[in-house]
Amino acid sequence: MTLAPVLAAPAAVLLHLVTVLPAAGIGAWLILASRKGALWHRRMGYLFLALMTVTALSTVFVREIDPDGGLSPIHLLIPVTLLGVGGGLIAARRHDVRRHKRVMLALYLGALVLAGAFTLMPGRLLHRVFFG
Asked: Which pTM was predicted?
């Protein structure tokens, strides 16, 4: 494992990593360990949503697959993520617990787990970090 690719990465990639990594940890805690509806669940939920929003917006400027400026298919997750953030927040504010839970779980699995799996594909930055 080497952090050299991360240290040499463009600012957009660094911003993306700095927001997505804590979002992954906070999201896991919110789903698996937090007391739903408690003050800390709500506070950390707002932080999670803020981090996911910055993560999604920073992705617009991450052009690792096509450095000439084109968007790749993974960029389709940007609007999906932003819709999930908004939908989850609206559901929570309406006290629609069932919808909130469903949207947040889909957001976590799609925008973090699925997208995270794509970052480990050969040629991608995190593949170089973990596999050389």
From this structure: 0.90
